[in-house]
Design goal:
The complex is a heterodimer of chains A (345) and B (267).
Chain A lengths: L27 E9 L5 E10 L4 E5 L6 H8 L7 E6 L8 H7 E4 L11 H11 L4 H14 L15 H13 L5 E5 L7 H16 L4 E6 L2 H7 L2 E6 L2 E6 L1 H7 L3 E8 L4 H8 L5 E5 L2 E8 L3 H10 L4 E6 L4 H8 L5 H11 L1
Parallel strand pairs in A: 3-7, 3-8, 5-6, 6-7
Antiparallel strand pairs in A: 1-2, 1-4, 8-9, 10-12, 10-13, 11-12
Helix pairs in contact in A: 3-4, 3-5, 4-5, 8-11
Chain B lengths: L2 H16 L2 H27 L8 H11 L6 H32 L2 H6 L2 H5 L5 H39 L7 H28 L3 H8 L4 H12 L6 H20 L1 H5 L1 H6 L3
Helix pairs in contact in B: 1-7, 2-4, 2-7, 3-4, 4-7, 4-8, 4-9, 4-10, 7-8, 8-9, 8-11
C-alpha cells in the first residue's frame, strides 16, 4: 500500500526566527504561512520551507498549486495572512526594499521591457539595484557574454526569441549578485542545450558561490537533477517533501522487476510468479515482471526461494520523482485548480 | 528618496517615448501647431482695423494687462491673446501631451506585463511613483515653457512695432507661465499617475485623467468671455494651492501604488 507522509514539513517549527540577520543560518525560512486572497480563496495553507546557503530547493506542483504565490510572498510583493517569512534574516513585508536588494527573482511574468535593448534593460536594473555606476557597464557586458547575448545586446528585446529573452532575464536577475535566487519556471522556453547550461549555472551558483536557490518547476526531471530538497505543492498545501531520492523511496508505485534464475528452475519460477503478476520470459531463466508493487518484491523473492528456485539476480527499477508526483496527483481535477487559481488572482 | 532610482525610471520612460515616433510626433505636433495658430492670430489681430465689438470680454482684459485702453481694438485683442488666452491654452496642450505618458505610467506597465519586474526592484512604492511622475513632468514642463517663450517672443515681435513698447512680460503673464502653469501641470499629472496606478487599463486611466483638464478649460473660457480673470494674485493663490496639492500627492504616493494591489491584478 502507498504510505505517504502528508504532514507539512516541520524541521524548523521549534527554531525561533533570528533577531540578528548576520546569525541567520537559513537564507530563507517560511513558517506555517497561509495566504488567503480577497474573496476567501486560500492560495497557500500552512506552508513551511527552508533553504540554506548553497542549497537548491524545488517547488513542484500544477498550475495554481501556490508556487508563484509563495515566490511573491518571499519577495515581499504579497503579505502572508498568517505565518512568518524570513529572508536572510529580514522580514519581506517590513524590510521589502532590503530583501529585494539582496535577492534575485525570475518571475513567471515578463521581466524585460520589450521596447528596450537587452543592454538597456540590464543597465536600467543595475541603476535600480544600486550597482556601482563605474562598474555597471563592465558587469552588464560580462553577464551578457556569459549568457551568450553580447552579440545581440543592442537589439530590442522585442526582436529576441523566447529563449534569448529568458537568458537575458537570467542575466538581469544575477546582475546584483543576489544571495538568494527565486526562479519561477526558469527553463521554460529554453532549448535542451540552454537548459543544460542553466542547470550548470544553478549548480555553480549554489555550490561555488553558496547562493540559496528556490526553483519552481513542472519539470520533474529538472527537479530530480538539480534539487537537494523538493516540496510538492497541491492546492496550496505541501503534500510531500524531502530529497528527490527520499521521496522516490517513500512511494510504493508499481515497478518493473527483472529476475535471473537457474534455467532448470524456469517452470517453478513461473508458477510462483503467476501469483503476483504476469511474467514475461525474456530468455530461458530470465524474466521481467511489470507492475509489481515495490513493497511486494521481498515477498516475491521469498516465495521463489521458498519454492527452491535458484535465484542469481533480482533487479528492480528505482521509483522516480515523476512516479511520486503522478501518484500524488492521481485523483486531482486539474480544471478545478486552474479555476481556483484564476479566482485567487 | 532614492534619487538615482527616480531618475532611472524617469529616464527609461523618456527614452521609450523618444524612440517611438508614433508617440513622439503627436506630442510635438500639437504644441507647435497651437503656437503657430496663436502667433498668426496675434499678428493679424495687431494689424486689423475691423470692429471687434462682440469680443468685449477679451478687450476688457487689456485693461489689466497693460493698464490702458488707448490702443485700437485689434491691438487690444492681440494683447489679450498674448497675455491671458495663449498661456492657459499652451498649459492645456502641454498637459494633454504629457498625460499620454502619465496615463501609461503604471497601467501601461501592467498591460505590457512588466509591472512585476519593476515591483521586484529594491525601490520603494513612493519612489516608483515619483519616477513615473518625473518622467511625465519633464516633457510637460519643457514643452510648456518652450512653447510659452516662443509664443511670447512672436507676440512681442507682432505687437511692439505697433504700440511702441513690448506687451510682455507682465506680472499676470509671468505668474501664469512660471508659477501657476508648472503648479497646475505637476498636480494634474500627479493625479493622472495616481489614476494610472489604480486604473485597470490605460484606456480607463485616460478617461478619468481627462477630468483634470476641466479647471484649465474653465479658466480659458472664463478669461475669453471676461467672466473670470487670472490676475496676478489669483494666479499666485491658485499656484500655491496646486503646489500644495502636488506636494500632498507626493507624500502619499506610496499608499497609492501598493505592491499587493498591483500583483492582485496580474493574470
Amino acid at each position: 500500500m502507498t504510505t505517504l507522509d502528508t504532514r507539512p514539513p516541520t524541521p524548523h517549527e521549534a527554531m525561533p526566527l533570528p533577531e540578528n540577520p548576520a546569525s541567520a543560518p537559513d537564507a530563507l525560512r517560511v513558517d506555517s504561512v497561509t495566504k488567503t486572497f480577497t474573496g476567501g480563496v486560500r492560495a497557500l495553507d500552512d506552508v513551511g520551507l527552508a533553504a540554506r546557503p548553497g542549497q537548491v530547493v524545488g517547488l513542484l506542483g500544477h498550475n495554481g498549486a501556490g508556487k508563484t504565490t509563495l515566490v511573491r510572498l518571499v519577495s515581499g510583493l504579497l503579505t502572508p495572512t498568517s505565518g512568518t517569512v524570513s529572508v536572510l534574516g529580514f522580514d519581506p513585508v517590513r524590510d521589502g526594499v532590503e530583501v529585494r536588494r539582496r535577492i534575485g527573482v525570475l518571475p513567471s511574468s515578463q521581466l524585460l521591457d520589450n521596447r528596450l535593448s537587452g543592454r538597456e534593460n540590464l543597465r536600467f536594473a543595475g541603476r535600480l539595484f544600486g550597482v556601482d555606476p563605474a562598474r555597471l557597464d563592465e558587469r552588464v557586458d560580462s553577464l551578457l557574454d556569459e549568457f551568450g547575448m553580447l552579440a545581440r545586446a543592442d537589439d530590442r528585446v522585442s526582436t529576441y526569441s523566447a529563449g534569448m529573452r529568458q537568458r537575458t532575464a537570467l542575466a538581469r536577475v544575477l546582475l546584483s549578485r543576489p544571495e538568494l535566487l527565486l526562479l519561477d519556471e526558469p527553463s521554460s522556453a529554453l532549448d535542451p542545450v540552454a537548459i543544460r547550461e542553466l542547470h550548470e549555472l544553478i549548480r555553480r551558483k549554489s555550490r561555488e558561490e553558496r547562493i540559496a536557490v528556490v526553483i519552481c518547476t513542472h519539470d520533474l526531471a529538472e527537479a530530480a537533477d538539480l534539487c537537494d530538497e523538493v516540496l510538492i505543492l497541491s492546492q496550496g498545501r505541501v503534500i510531500a517533501s524531502g530529497s528527490p531520492q527520499e521521496l522516490a523511496a517513500r512511494v510504493d508505485v508499481p515497478t518493473a522487476v527483472e529476475l535471473e534464475c537457474e534455467a532448470a528452475d524456469t517452470d517453478a519460477a513461473l508458477a510462483v510468479m503467476a501469483g503476483f503478476t504476469d511474467a514475461e520470459r525474456v530468455s530461458e531463466g530470465t524474466f521481467r515482471l511489470d507492475g509489481v508493487a515495490r513493497s511486494s518484491v521481498p515477498e516475491l523473492v521469498g516465495s521463489l526461494v521458498g519454492a527452491g528456485v535458484r535465484l542469481y539476480t533480482v533487479r528492480t527499477a528505482q521509483a522516480t520523482l515523476e512516479d511520486l508526483y503522478l501518484r500524488l496527483h492521481a485523483g486531482d481535477d486539474h480544471g478545478d485548480r486552474t479555476d481556483r487559481n484564476s479566482e485567487a488572482k | 528618496m532614492n534619487r538615482n532610482a527616480v531618475r532611472a525610471i524617469a529616464a527609461r520612460d523618456l527614452a521609450t517615448v523618444r524612440r517611438n515616433l508614433g508617440v513622439l510626433v503627436p506630442m510635438l505636433i500639437v504644441p507647435v501647431a497651437l503656437v503657430a495658430m496663436l502667433s498668426l492670430a496675434t499678428f493679424l489681430a495687431a494689424r486689423t482695423t475691423m470692429d471687434l465689438g462682440p469680443l468685449t470680454g477679451l478687450l476688457d482684459l487689456t485693461g489689466s494687462a497693460d493698464g490702458g485702453t488707448e490702443h485700437s481694438p485689434g491691438v487690444r485683442l492681440a494683447i489679450a491673446l498674448a497675455t491671458y488666452v495663449g498661456p492657459p491654452l499652451l498649459i492645456i496642450v502641454s498637459l494633454l501631451t504629457a498625460s499620454v505618458m502619465a496615463t501609461d505610467s503604471v497601467a501601461g506597465e501592467r498591460e505590457r506585463g512588466t509591472i512585476e519586474g519593476l515591483l521586484l526592484t529594491p525601490v520603494s512604492d513612493r519612489d516608483i511613483l515619483m519616477g513615473k511622475l518625473v518622467g511625465a513632468l519633464v516633457p510637460a514642463l519643457v514643452l510648456g515653457l518652450a512653447s510659452q517663450l516662443v509664443y511670447a517672443a512672436v507676440a512681442v515681435a507682432a505687437i511692439a512695432p505697433v504700440t511702441g513698447s513690448p506687451p510682455l512680460p507682465t506680472l499676470p503673464w509671468a505668474m501664469t507661465v512660471l508659477w501657476f502653469g508648472p503648479a497646475f501641470t505637476t498636480a494634474a499629472l500627479g493625479l493622472t499617475v495616481f489614476v494610472s496606478a489604480r486604473a485597470r487599463t490605460v484606456q480607463a486611466a485616460h478617461q478619468v485623467s481627462g477630468v483634470g483638464v476641466i479647471p484649465l478649460v474653465a479658466l480659458v473660457v472664463g478669461q475669453a468671455t471676461g467672466l473670470f480673470l487670472l490676475y496676478w494674485w489669483v494666479g499666485l493663490l491658485l499656484g500655491a494651492l496646486f503646489w500644495a496639492a502636488a506636494y500632498a500627492m507626493v507624500r502619499m504616493g506610496g499608499r497609492v501604488l501598493q505592491r499587493e494591489n498591483q500583483i492582485a491584478t496580474l493574470v
